[in-house]
């Protein structure tokens, strides 16, 4: 029984490391600064506007930026976790926000906004803003590969401290939980 648990733990660690190593060559990397961009804000104080959250980051404040092409249960799980984490760390000025990516075009963008609004309500997102961007590659400078369904950056002082990349095959509830644990470990907020 003990060796089964060890094999299970080893398997979980292997899955996590493979996900973290998946095509990280494209786009921004740890040590680089986040690039400013605007997206359409669906929830929060800037709702109904285009806003640049990167531009508003204060130099010493931590942040988590989630790009996602999916509004599924694992993404909802991460949203609920980060929304609670942001609420718990108000004193640390933590900002966690989601950017949902979709096909180019106004019709696609409007549909994506409606989906994101429903997704926020379904997951009771009260603190983490949700935004949309009708650009399959993400904002200029980020160069997100279409095979990357979820890309998450943690930052401190606007510098990227970690990057996590997940493909469709890699993104599930276990990955979302592991990612949330990694985010907490990376940011080290008390």
Any overview of this molecule?
This protein is an alpha/beta fold. The chain is 38% helix and 20% strand. It contains five helices and seven strands. It has a seven-stranded mixed β-sheet with strand order 2-1-5-4-3-6-7. It is globular.
Question: What are the main properties of this structure?
Answer:
single chain; 190 residues; alpha/beta; 7 strands
Secondary structure layout plus pairing:
Blueprint lengths: L1 H20 L17 E3 L8 E2 L1 H4 L5 E7 L4 H16 L6 E7 L4 H17 L7 E4 L16 E7 L2 E8 L6 H15 L3
Parallel strand pairs: 3-4, 4-5
Antiparallel strand pairs: 1-2, 1-5, 3-6, 6-7
Radius of gyration: 16 Å
Poorly predicted runs are 5-24
The strand line-up of the biggest sheet is 2-1-5-4-3-6-7
- Helical region count? 5
Main β-sheet description = 7 strands, mixed
What is the chain-wise order of helices and strands? HEEHEHEHEEEH
What is the tally of beta strands? 7
What percent of residues adopt helix (DSSP H or I)? 25-40%
- Structural class comes to alpha/beta
**What's the mean pLDDT score?**
87
Assign an overall shape: globular
Please sum up the structure shown.
This protein has 190 residues and is of the alpha/beta class. Helix content is 38%, strand content 20%.
